[in-house]
Queue: 2 jobs
Job 1
Amino acid sequence: MIRRHAAAATALRAYLRRACSSHAADSNDQLLGLVEVPKPRPGSRLSTKDFAFLKEPTPPIPAAALTPPEAVLISKAIRAYATDFDGSAERFLRRHRDFLTDAVVVAVLRSVRAPELCVKFFLWAERQVGYSHTSACYDALAEVLSFEDRARTAERLLREIGEDDREVLGRLLNVLVRKCCRHGAWAEALEELGRLKDFGYRPSGATYNALVQVLATAGQVDMGFRVQKEMSESGFCMDKFTIGCFAQALCKKGRYSDALDMIQREDFKLDTVLCTQMISGLMEASLFDEAVSFLHRMRCNSCIPNIVTYRTLLSGFLKKKQLGWCKRIINMMMKEGCNPNPSLFNSLVHSYCNARDYTYAYKLLKRMSSCSCPPGYVVYNIFIGSICGGEELPDPELLALAEKVYEEMLASNCVLNKVNTANFARCLCGVEKFDKAFQIIKVMMKKGFVPDTSTYSKVITFLCQAMKVEKAFLLFQEMKNVGVKPDVYTYTILIDSFCKAGLIEQAQKWFDEMRSVGCSPNVVTYTALLHAYLKAKQLPQASEFFHRMVDAGCLPNAITYSALIDGLCKAGEIQKACEVYAKLIGTSGSVESEFYFEGEHTDTIAPNVVTYGALVDGLCKAHKVVDAHELLDAMLSTGCEPNHIIYDALIDGFCKVGKIDNAQEVFLRMTKCGYLPTVHTYTSLIDAMFKDKRLDLAMKVLSQMLEGSCTPNVVTYTAMIDGLCGIGESEKALKLLSMMKQKGCSPNVVTYTALIDGLGKSGKVDIGLQLFTQMSTQGCAPNYVTYRVLINHCCAAGLLDEAHSLLSEMKQTYWPKYLQGYSFAVQGFSRKFIASLGLLEEMESHGTVPIAPVYGLLIDNFSKAGRLEKALELHKEMMEVSPSLNITSKVAYASLIQALCLASHLEEAFGLYSEMVRKGVVPELSVFVCLIKGLVKVNKWNEALQLCYSICHEGVKWQGNNSFDGG
């Protein structure tokens, strides 16, 4: 998380500036410094008192959240006297009967877990005078009894309960039915209903309502009518919520007349809520005329449509891409004072932009402010990205509209994302608005965007064209057009720019071109390309290029060898870097390193502070901090004084490996040598101390930092916030975020993401969602890691609709199909943080940002929740976004097939299985087991046996296992 510029890279840029200075237009040229140094923002001076709250003791956990001590005592006794419950256990329990409450009983049941012991304790508790079980107690017992098998409770235990207390058994059986309904398992719920009747009990009204609801949600409307008829014959009526669910399900099937008849039979009067639910069902069935007719019918029945009604209609038409209908509904609802919410406005603008109806999209954009939901980060990126994202330049009128919206966006303190920034600037350069394009790049980069490889490929050309050094690239083109031969300095600036962007092949083309026109490269030109090849880990090409350099008579200098050592370190070739260094100082005769020292010129080259800095930095990053520390002594012995960059590298290295005491020793040595610690120095120490949970020590360093007039920057605050989240102090982390804003330090995407992750791990997903909204409105755009963290926590908390909404937003505003690698998607985050999300494994199996795993996560959770329609819809989207399958899609297939088999949708399950095999994915054994169970469940024994036979005799290669050939 804590990043520092490498010493060698800094020296190389300085050398290039000096080498090209004779051709610079003026001393203010900004080619090699893309972002200006930010000016300090106004704010009151920090002091130790500002951070005093970090020392405050953490408030104790509320008593209500703790397990009652009596429950712990009773649980231990029950387990200890398990074999003698009627004797020793009951004697112990009688001494504690005064402590019986529903909370104690629930806690004991969840702690003991053993079904037989739980049943005995439950029945004993029910017999005690002055105590009666609540619904929470029955739910807890049902959870214990169905622990191993979700719906089928052991008959023997149920009969024991019935023999002891028939009333308790009746309530429990009703609870088991409702429990299946809550999990969406309607088939298991009907089985439990049958068992309830077999035991001689009748379902309660709540049980019937739960059954009708789960059947309606699953689309089993005919079965729902049967249950409703039985319910009516038993003297029960459906409640309002159940009627709404059932009516919506019937409308979804196109049976809205049956829904009206059912409402009339139940003697229920139509109201706005019920009508809205029916309209929602009609919209899902694509019965648009009927839905609008029903809207008019509402008014005839004195049911006034409200904002939910209109938003339901609008969302339905938008989902079905009926944009003409959308305009009509928008006019109707706004006349009545109802407005779309921000998310719906965003989707509307996105749809009209896709339809190239930019005029209407802009009207909606302007309308948002008057509807108390001003446009934000998402909608501005949608609008400008749609106009400028195509391969061809937009019409002048459209580009002017994009410029107008961009100015409005800046006034709203919102920002463009990377791709839209590059595309917008490219379009402006296409109409020769170089200065404005350059300003856009600068403004967006000041907001925290670092262009990635694909972005640089678009940005570098017009960035050079807009520079003050004779408008670099523009001058280069003009020079060729008029027949003036560019010199070595012009080519070197271009080559260095492309190398820094990682576009080595294009830089090589410029290099070949300059040689073809008779312009000889110099040592600076060779060094720039050599360093780029090494950083890209292309060692064979780097070796060949070095040969070409020596053969051309261009002798490497100290900067070249420093770049060579730095490049080898960045490529992970620490051993080779050390061999180069050893050869330079004359202590190595390694054959492997002889390649880099052809000729006798190296006798006059001695390592300098830049060389040592590159090697120390590389050793520290490879966690060879002891070797790096020994190198510090070697420097001093040769009379080479270490600089603050080397000390910073050592301090950061010791902190990264957890040797804080060693880091403090280097810190003291640094100060004795007259070097003032920088914000990077303090930040490394504070970060390590927070991670080591040494909060008091971190506060001392922070105090020393403030006394030295060194103001914490965003990296420092982010390290503290991440450290607080790591020890579960998310409330203090929120306070620290608020304080850093007050002090004029704007949080970046890493800060927000770390805090959102900490809140999610503390079970505060709702606060994390609020923080996500806040960061977008305050000019800090979320990136892939932010979305991934929040989607993970939403799924874990059961907030599936919120997780799906985040995925939709990410698809609209992020750029997964453009980004060619992870290097910039995870930039700024520590390796440990990325590993905690499971992204390191995905990086090895994906060439682009992995949108498919996010789909897989949502598909799995929607499948387990019984929401198969949404899961299948997500699967279809995933196939469109990421056609190439991987282990993630395999998991998604397995989860979907299992859920479809449980719901007896065998045709769809086998369809997915066929698609899976057709795409070359080998199913897991569990997939076949689910398919076979599904066939058996519907009495298709022949098909089940045929599937078993094919598995045994065709020899299936299981993933991660030996082949199963029927042996």
Note: The chain has a mean pLDDT of 75.
Job 2
Amino acid sequence: MPGKHDWTPWMKKNRPPVLLCTLGAVLLCCLQSGASVPDEVPVFTEEPASVVQKLGGSVSLRCSARPALANISWRLNGQELLDGDFGAVLGPNSLYIPSLSNLTLGRYQCVASTSVGALASVLANVTAAKLRDFEPDDQQEIEVDEGNTAVIECHLPESQPKAQVRYSVKQEWLETSKGNYLIMPSGNLQIANATREDEGPYKCAAYNPVTQEVKTSISADRLRIRRSTSEAARIIYPPASRSIMATKGQRLVLECVASGIPTPQVTWAKDGRDLRYLNNTHFLLSNLLIDAVGEDDSGTYACQADNGIISSTSAMVLYNVQVSEPPQVTVEMQQQEVAYGETVRFACQARGKPAPSVMWLHNARPLSPSPRHRLTSRMLRVFNVGPQDEGLYQCMAENGVGSSQASTRLIIVSAGIPSRAKLPSIFLSPDKVLREQPPVRPGASGAMLPLDCSELPGQILPAEAPVIVSQPRTGKADYYELTWRPRHERGVPVLEYMIKYRKVGDPLAEWTSSSISGSLHKLTLAKLQPDSLYEVEMAAKNCAGLGQPAMISFRTGKGRKGKNDPPKTPAVPSPSLSPPEAPDKPTVSTATETSAYVTWIPRGNRGFPIQSFRVEYKKVKKAGEDWVTAVENIPPSRLSVEITGLEKGTSYKFRVVAVNVIGSSPPSAPSKAYTVVGGRTHERPVDGPYITYNEAINETSIILKWTYTPVNNTPIYGFYIFYRPTDSDNDSDYKKDVVEGDRYWHSITNLQPETAYDIKMQSFNEKGESEFGNVVILETKARPNQQRPIPSEIPDRELETPTGVVHRPGDLPYFIVVIVLGAFIFIIVAFIPFCLWRTWAKQKQTADMCFPTVASPVSSCQYTMVPLQGLALVGRCPLDGHMTAPHGIYPVTGECRMNGKPHHLPGQQQEEDGL
């Protein structure tokens, strides 16, 4: 073929260049492929998950990313964690903690890095497992009609992770449902078709699956079955309507138990629609089950009971269900190329309920607002970009239900150079996305910030504090209905309310937090303790953030008493009775620009009814300000009053006094400092206090006194005291004591003896802290030379004296060393007489057994510590063949002569008899 003849000579002629070009191309491809691996954007294939483990247990966290050459590092609470720190062992794709301690608790995050940039994973919480004790509770007597369902409530204590419930039923502990006993996810026990056989005490216990601890309730509830011919339907659980937050995808169980004769029929409806015909709902006895809740399951559920008997009270209870969702984050563009000096904008959409908080990161480092960086929850702007701005940007969202993140890459190009990778035109600009984003109705499922606050015209102010309208005293022993209304309906709508509450007076009590939709104005605080004081703080949140909080305190009822309890004898007035007890610490909330609501809860009247209350106040800004009566002769039925005529921008404290015929109670504890809105806004204090006197009281305590002169009448709330050893150069070694109010002295305790301390102070208010005042150096006293008494020998009167020396934990090793040395010396001293006595006893025994008192050593056999019956072996010890047995030494036969008669060693006769 002509083509072949034409091609072959050319190929032969040009073979070397062709081969060289082919090899070069292959080599170039290999080099390019090898160089492209480090240039890949890291992508997580596995992120660490949160872990709950007991202290001392092991923890393993996993993290891996593509490409395989990506470098994996770890952080603990934002600080880089190296191999060996706190005992942690870092592997290629893992972090292992052999023994969990307080130092290794916290939030972990892994970082994947390549030459392109770095990405941070979602945060993983490593939490210590715990199980608290049951709170003291009175025994409850539960009555239910025969044939109906009974409910035994179990108020499980705080546990991490959630405790599993156990019930003591007829001398048997139930871990799961059995027969007509049904253990609900809430921890309640439901007894179906209850009869007289089910009467008796019921006790619950909590089991922590991690620590494997079991704790039992202090009291037991008693069930009583009653028989009647007819009884109108009534709902016995829940006792009142409730609000519930459920997580998307989880099973939801709404409990509703009714009682009556005949047995009532229970029906469920959601937003007025009957639920019997919906596919995703099931019924277990009279309870409603939803296998996997979704967004559409949010709403108001009504449980109604009816048995045909007309009653004046409605047998209905409501559940307000809000479905929470973990965050879902999307970024608008996966990559942007921007010319040097221009402005770049990154858009991020974070969905979730409650609305998640958003944090921006650049190469795994959090970004803060600056002249070049403008941050909002949905937008990041970087002005005048340069090479230092290249890399990976992350939008990370977290809302308490979960966390999520998404990333984008920024490439800086020089002007005039064409882009290396043009993106499809399908992507929209951030401005267009924001303009086309429809506003969201307040309280809608998955509520987000309706608008980017930075894009709205004018200044948007945070929502005002809501007005709490519920009363501060409730007759219910275990729950409280918190109700409120928005202060003003105008302006930017409220998206959600953030509410937290805790028990007052319990140092171990922690805040219980929840968030509900902005369209709701009621929340049931459940599982409370009887006859206890609680404090509540709540704030409204709009697109500008959280507003000023509203506060209230309330006291729960004492609960039901058993019918067998003897009736209380009415109090008889007597001359020995005293004025009422001081009311509880009042709470203050905003009324108008020049007035405030003061709310309080009275305590015992000590025999005579309370006739009136008196509210006093004083200004915080001046030291030594006297208390002034604001309102007096307040009727005892009123537990709240509006204080008018307050100065704008001034801070006040309030207290309450109760009055009866005997006299006035002591004043209540002062309220928190309250600043009247409006007027000139006070700035933070300028000058700090001046320390005028300091003295070391003993080896562990120092007393300080100081003066303070306000500048421009700026109010202060108190003082910060910072102290650290003088030989320390690390600012993190400073410890801080807080002195609230107008007290101008303080005692610093728990110091080290013979140690010099640097001490400095600041004043503070709601705007911040002042500059530091003067710095003083003071050395604690030396430890006394005389030996300290053993703690068990310290007289009781010395322990009760406030000025008595308190042994610090650091002295414990010295006591241990002293005790050990003393015990050792005692053993030696006691052992010497014992050794002397034993030597004398052996010599006497030797003389009695025909041994001479002084004899040449015959053998190297040791007789010390040999039992008496073992002496027969002495005759068999090998003797030195070169030595002649002196007179009196036992012959080899073990026989000796005493008083001229042969005598056998002890044990020898037994051996001969045995032969």
Note: Residues 131-318 form a domain with the Immunoglobulin-like fold (CATH 2.60.40.10).
